[in-house]
Amino acid sequence: MATPVIVTKKRREAEVDLNRFPFTENDLPGLGRQENLPEFLREYRLRGWNLFQTIPMPSTNDEAWRRTDLRGLRASELTLRAEVPKRGLRPPRNLLKPLVGKRHGGQIILVPTQNPTIAVNEEWRQQGIVFTDFRTAQVQHPDFLANSIGQIVRPEEGKFAALATAFAEDGVIVYIPRGVRLKEPLHSVVWSPGIRLARFTRLLVWVDDDAELTLVHEVASPNQSEGQSFHAGIVEIHVGKGAHLTFVEMQSWGNDVWNFTHERARVERDGTLDWIFGSVGSQLTKTFMEIDLVGEGATGKMSGFYFTNGNQHLDHDTQQNHFAPHTTSDLLFKGALQDRSRSVWQGMIYVAPGAQKTDGYQANRNLTLSPQARADSIPGLEIMADDVRCTHGATVGKIDEEQLFYLLSRGIPRNEAIRLIVEGFFEPIMERVPYGGVRQRFRTAIKQKIG
Amino acid sequence: MSELQIVDLHVNVNDREILKGVNLTVRQGEVHALMGPNGTGKSTLAYTLMGHPNYEVTQGEVWFKGQNILELEADQRAHLGLFLAFQYPVAIPGVSVANFLRAAINARRKIENPEDKGIPIPEFRKQLKKVMDSLRMDHTFASRYLNDGFSGGEKKRAEVLQMAMLRPEIAIMDETDSGLDIDALRIVAEGVNTLRGPDLGVLVITHYQRILNYIKPDFVHIMLDGRIVESGGADLALHLEEHGYDWLKNKAEVMVR
Ligand SMILES: Nc1ncnc2c1ncn2[C@@H]1O[C@H](COP(=O)(O)OP(=O)(O)OP(=O)(O)O)[C@@H](O)[C@H]1O
Ligand SMILES: [Mg+2]
């Protein structure tokens, strides 16, 4: 009678072991004696490392992780340095093409084991614009980093925020000085081939007062059939007073990637943020995305597109924080799901005491294309002020048979008809995206996912 | 010359028999009118011919171009040249009239020639404008979402627009005249008349003699309780207008026995 109990226990232990990251303090980048890491970074990494060790692995008992189970993550098999076949090193052409406008003002390409490729207009450098990779910034702009890094996303926020704090060496650092209005977009690409590779990245975007920037940031990797790989990232964004940032973020990790990010944008008085987000890749994603409207008159808009298939699991956790009066937030996330895939959207609008005359909106719409697909949509409001307008909506639906029949009756084959209906479903997102290249990318994703 | 031949068609909806043995042949070049009281199965016939999955054929055949089309999917039936103008067209938000029509035209071209690259956009636009002009539709309709927020009359006009663009060989028009004002009725009827010719057969389902003044039928059929109980020439519709359906009810009962 005792046997089954022992078996269960053993399995549980095996699970925990499999779930354990194999990294040690000696693996922390830049801490060796020979390396001259700035002191603040040494401390910062060690803080991340210590927190990582004390924060337990998230479990489905934690509210934020209730619908996203990490027990299948084979963390123990991950490596910090994976062999990458030479021809896998170059990112695919379509990732490098401009999504916004005809040409880039600057481009950074980050590939593991390779030196970063950085192209930036020389004039801009002279204007004080920083657009470089994290390692270079450590040498060239240590003071800027010391004053900005970790200010917006703190390592305490979670297991993976701590891990990324400790390990991220790769990354993109952007600084736009006060009053500089860049008309041409910047483009950064994180390409990440490597079987069982654990990759850590950070993105820091600092748009100073009255400055303006459009940044397109892509993270991607090939589909790898062997093993699991991993990404943990931190995205920190500062939009200064009267500044404007359009941030286009595209996630197309390979289907072997377990992806975890903490992303937050802080918007100061009269600043505006237009955040466009496309998420189609990875095996599993858990992303925390937040907008903190900290100054009066600040505006944050978020437009999210996701499409899952196979047994993908994408979990987007959004938060619109109104910390000041007269702030506006507007979020629309739309997703379609194929096969046995799953999505979770959990959104919260928070209005702080005294943040009167705020206007908050959030909506999440899902279209399930297969009976086995499942979308969870959980909106939330927490309002501590009385003179506000906040609305939300959440829906999960499937393809309407009458619509499908109508299109079929006009000679449009089933797959094509479904594609049209899905494109129509996403149209409200497309209307919020003023860039043909981005829209085209979304359409291509729809085509590929429907097959 | 192809013909749509409906033979002893029985159809169930939710396990209830709605069509109880329909026989009807529509040839290219002919216009047939189908009339009958509410709920007798006219739309059921239309949907069944087009292949709606909710309509279960329990008996009978429908022949078109040498095939029993009951075995075909709706899109394949459309490729053969069948068209249904819906009594209640559904809205497809986010899909513009132009994109939808282009997809439909291209799907057909692709069947005819798998190498086809699709209709050139300028040619498509030209055609679309021409047809919209003939139906007195504002060109902005092309970029509106299909039937989304269309008025009742606009939806009906959009159905005829599609018919004119897709050039079917047999068209079933299910109460395309309902909900049209007098001017619109004339415009829509003119639209259909310009398509009329040896290559088009039409089955006009209607409650009103009025549209038949514009689209002169070669034959008129009356459906009662899932069967065609009377067929005749254009004057049959006039007779109905005057006398209603009562005189036919006895006849239907006799047929049941
Ligand atoms: N999808 C359906 N579900 C349930 N009942 C249906 C369905 N389609 C048709 N019926 C039933 O079948 C019968 C015939 O309906 P149908 O729509 O064919 O009538 P009709 O002759 O077109 O009427 P009308 O002149 O009012 O348009 C009705 O009793 C109707 O309620
Ligand atoms: Mg009807």
Task: Sum this structure up briefly.
The complex is a heterodimer of chains A (451) and B (257). Chain A is of the alpha/beta class.
CATH architecture annotation name of chain B: 3-Layer(aba) Sandwich
Report the span from N to C terminus of chain B: 37 Å
| CATH fold name of chain B | Rossmann fold
Q: Specify Rg of chain B, calculated over alpha carbons.
A: 18 Å
Total helices of chain B: the number is 9
Low-confidence stretches of chain B: none
As a percent range, the share of helical residues of chain B equals 25-40%
**Separation, N- and C-terminal Cα atoms of chain A:** 51 Å
Report strand % of chain A.
Answer: 35-45%
Write up what this structure looks like.
The complex is a heterodimer of chains A (451) and B (257). Chain A is an alpha/beta fold and 451 residues long. Chain A folds into 2 domains: 334 residues, no CATH class; 51 residues, no CATH class. Helices cover 23% and strands 36% of the residues of chain A. Chain A has 10 helices and 20 strands. In chain A, the strands form 2 sheets. Chain A has a 10-stranded mixed sheet with strand order 2-1-5-7-9-11-13-15-17-20. In chain A, strands 3, 4, 6, 8, 10, 12, 14, 16, 18 and 19 form a 10-stranded mixed sheet that branches. Chain A is globular, with a radius of gyration of 22 Å. Chain B has 257 residues and is α/β, with parallel strands linked by helices. Chain B has one domain: Rossmann fold, CATH 3.40.50. Helix content of chain B is 40%, strand content 25%. Chain B has 9 helices and 10 strands. In chain B, the strands form 2 sheets. Chain B has a 6-stranded mixed sheet, with helices on both faces. In chain B, strands 2-1-4-5 form a 4-stranded antiparallel sheet, with helices on one face. In chain B, a hairpin with a 2-residue loop joins strand 4 and strand 5. In chain B, helix 5 runs parallel beside helix 6. At the A-B interface, helix 8 and helix 9 of A face helix 2 and helix 3 of B. Magnesium ion binds next to helix 1 of chain B.
